[in-house]
Amino acid sequence: MNRRLKVRLTDSAKQDLLDSFDYSAGEWGIDHATYYRDLIRKRIHSLALHPEIGVRREDVFPGCRGLIVGQLVVYYVVEANDAVIVRIVDQRREPKNLFSDGERPKPS
Question: 57 with 65: CB under 8 angstroms?
Answer without folding.
Answer: yes
